[in-house]
Write a structure and sequence with these properties.
Structural class: mainly alpha
Distance between the termini: 49 Å
Mean pLDDT: 84
Number of helices: 3
Number of strands: 0
Radius of gyration: 20 Å
Order of helices and strands: HHH
Shape: flat
Helix content: over 70%
Amino acid sequence: MADAPYEPTEAAIANVIEKTGGDPRKLAVAYLRAQKRARDSETAFNVMAKLDGAMDAAIRGDVSGVADGLTRATSVLRGHREQSEDTLVRSGYAPRRGSQTPPRPPSGGS
């Protein structure tokens, strides 16, 4: 059974709007940062699960199982890195792989 989506209280929503001054850009930045933290946490949990499998295999003396667990952990990390790099490329903060074009500087600086 899937969990019901989180429904914040009106007071919590008002608190966030107050903290950001109602600025849509600040709200978007806060949302995207929270989204990134959630992705990072999910990746860390998945890597931990793969490493746990590798540890269990090591305890059993199953070298093939250790290699499989480490390969899976590496695959999860590689996927996370590629997803993060793709996000930076789409936003214009990183060049495409193989591109000679430098990334654009962040906007809104001093």
